[in-house]
Amino acid sequence: MRGQPGTFLYFLSRRLTKIKVHGQENLAALDNSGPAMIVINHTTVVDVVVTVGTLHKLGFTVDGPCAVSCTHRRHLRPVGTSDMWNFPLARQIVSGSGIIPTDQHDGRSAYRAARTALQNNECVLIYPEGDVQINSEASPRPWRPGAAALAKTCAMPIVPIAHHDTRKLGSGSVWQSILQALSKVFRRPTIHLSIGMPILPSEIAELSMQSANDYLEAKLMQTWLQTKACS
Prior knowledge:
- It is a single chain.
- The chain has helices spanning about 5-15, 45-55, 90-95, 110-120, 145-150, 175-180, 210-230; strands at about 20, 35-40, 60, 75-80, 100, 125, 160-165, 190-195.
- It is of the alpha/beta class.
- Helices cover about 35% and strands about 15% of the residues.
């Protein structure tokens, strides 16, 4: 499984959850060549099982480059915590995958790497809240500035994706979340995932950085509200 976190999380998601996907036709915006970005709300470390596993199933993988012929719709460049490299099993899975490691306290190197990926016509996946703290509703929280700054670097489609309610799978500390998730193997809670309408570059081209950030936040919140209504 070296360099195949998408494949790993896809099989894990099948064992742990039942995922209801809404709006998957909106992923067609990512089929065209050129830079693109996916923004996803983040409530618990195990919500990546739902989001990344589902995207892999739909043809958008975070696995490393295919060695021979590629059957994926697109390879993604996710921005993920550098903590994954601190655990032997996780390090084995993510090494060579193209994940952009970020330090929660200093994301400058991750921002530069993500910007370079976009300049190379890749698709970047980012959790713009930057951490997994959670409010009472598990709704999207204010963004850190990196995602909006990336959105303003080049003209590209941005696809918002929201899930509700991954707390059914696990919450709390890293280990609490993982243990809770693994305990669900025989119960498999249903989690809803909505893929929102793509945000076109013209929608934010004339906005200031702060206004663009607020606009993108609102679009993710709108997607999350749609997801919540399905739950």
